[in-house]
Design a protein that fits this description.
The protein is of the alpha/beta class. Helices cover about 35% and strands about 30% of the residues. It has eleven helices and 19 strands. Strands 2, 4, 5, 7, 8 and 9 form a six-stranded mixed β-sheet that branches. A six-stranded mixed β-sheet has the order 16-15-12-17-18-19, with helices on both faces. β7 (about 120-130) and β8 form a beta hairpin. The radius of gyration is 33 Å and the shape is elongated.
Length: about 425
């Protein structure tokens, strides 16, 4: 029933008040019921409309997208309909309600703007259609399941650091004005000597043949292997800054993948907790960052402990040649001492291992506040946590593992700088 029927009922009170009695009340009520029934049979059923959803392309978290709902009138009747294109709250749908007059055989489209606030595969909710006649006293309503999925990729905010990091690699790659030989480099080409070149790079035999000074140029070795392990266990679900530890780990994996694959190295990413959640590789991939983003779209931390024995076995099976293995996980005392350290000798026998972790920026703030007794106790607990992290880094260094611990916003850049340093010194 609509407000029009309610207004008709209120209007029917006028003759009842003018001619009081049961007879006038029954006559007015009968007229209202007959009009409502007549209008009910005049209303076309909503099932006469064919529906199809066409979601937009995959989008990164924070970017807008849309979904197109197509409505087709398959009946010979003129339809007056109201449509609600419903989505989950995390899809950030705007203006989900609209009204149309749809002639027979015609179609129309409803474009719903979406601004997702959560990463993952967002499923559309039901489409609800209300149909009414010209009188508009009664409406028919029905909800339809019209499947549609919008994939929201990780945001990759750290891509703003990619140009500067790539420029550093280009300088190492012999594409800058200064080209010097260092560890982990291989011969690239010969060129004429210019002022400022290192005299140790002069190729005297080639210079004698050309009668001009010629210098050798060098570039870092290519086709190295990088294996990134992203911990998706319960430790990765902890809040840190504006997101979780897992969010910072994904950003680090994306930036390092973009940098290393651009440098000609092969990158494999393993996401695991109690089981292997996802594996992505840049080998034979035209866009490794996009493929990795798609693989990580639906992966979220689970409340299980990581199985580091299984992870170690997967890493060894992923790369049988020497590789840089980056473990992105929380620097937790129990996890490192009881689970990670026992499996390190197996990986260190073949690979160079780096452990990257996210430092909670709130710990430093809590440790600095000591104005009251409560703040002093809180500062002591924060200092104890910081000292534990430093102690774990020392133990890892003693085991031959280099560690990186910094804030969630700085971790991607710190890992990229470490990769560039290893590349420059020939330790990759």
């Amino acid at each position: 029933m609509t407000t029009r029927l309610l207004l008709l009922a209120l209007l029917g009170l006028v003759p009842v008040m003018l001619v009081p009695g049961w007879t006038s009340a029954l006559i007015v009520s009968g007229i209202i019921v007959i009009v409502a029934l007549l209008d009910f049979f005049l209303v076309p059923p909503p099932r006469l409309v064919s529906l199809q959803r066409t979601p937009g392309p995959m989008v990164r978290l924070g970017d807008p997208t849309d979904c197109t709902l197509t409505l087709v009138n398959d009946s010979p009747k003129h339809l007056r309909i109201a449509v609600r294109d419903a989505w989950s709250p995390s899809a950030g749908a705007k203006s989900t309600r609209s009204e149309f007059d749809l002639p027979p055989g015609e179609n129309t489209q409803v474009v719903t703007q979406l601004l997702p606030v959560r990463r993952g595969a967002l499923h559309a909710d039901k489409v609800t259609i209300r149909s009414r006649s010209v009188l508009g006293f009664i409406v028919r309503q029905k909800s339809f399941d019209v499947p549609a999925i919008v994939r929201v990729l990780p945001p990759f905010i750290s891509r703003r650091e990619l140009p500067s990091k790539t420029q550093k690699l280009r300088e190492l790659d012999g594409r800058s004005a200064v080209m010097i030989r260092g560890m982990g480099t291989e011969f690239d080409s010969l060129r004429d000597y210019v002022d400022g070149d290192d005299v140790r790079s002069i190729d005297w035999r080639a210079s004698a043949r050309s009668q001009d000074l010629v210098v050798k140029t060098w570039r870092p070795e290519r086709d190295r292997r990088v294996v990134i392990v992203v911990d998706s266990s319960r430790l990765a679900a902890r809040r840190c800054g504006d997101g979780t530890i897992f969010d910072a780990a994904l950003e680090s994996a994306l930036l390092l993948t973009a940098l290393a694959s651009g440098a000609g190295d092969r990158v494999d990413v393993v996401v695991a907790d109690a089981r292997i959640r996802a594996i992505a590789s840049s080998h034979r991939s035209k866009d490794p960052v996009h493929d990795l983003s798609v693989a990580l779209t639906t992966v979220h931390p689970e409340l299980y402990d990581a199985d580091w024995e299984q992870i170690s076995t997967t890493v060894l099976a992923t790369s049988r040649q020497h590789a840089l293995v980056v473990l992105v996980t929380a620097l937790d005392e129990g996890s490192v001492a009881d689970e990670i350290l026992p499996v390190l000798p197996t990986m260190l026998a073949r690979h160079r291992v780096v452990l990257a972790s996210v430092e909670d920026p709130a710990l430093g703030e809590l440790a600095a506040k000591r104005a009251s007794t409560d703040e002093i106790f809180t500062a002591a607990a924060a200092e104890s946590e910081l000292l534990t992290s430093k102690s774990l880094q020392t133990r890892l260094r003693g085991a031959g593992v280099q560690s990186v611990e910094t804030g969630p916003d700085d971790l991607p850049g710190a890992l990229a700088d470490l990769y560039i340093n290893l590349k420059a010194t020939g330790r990759l």
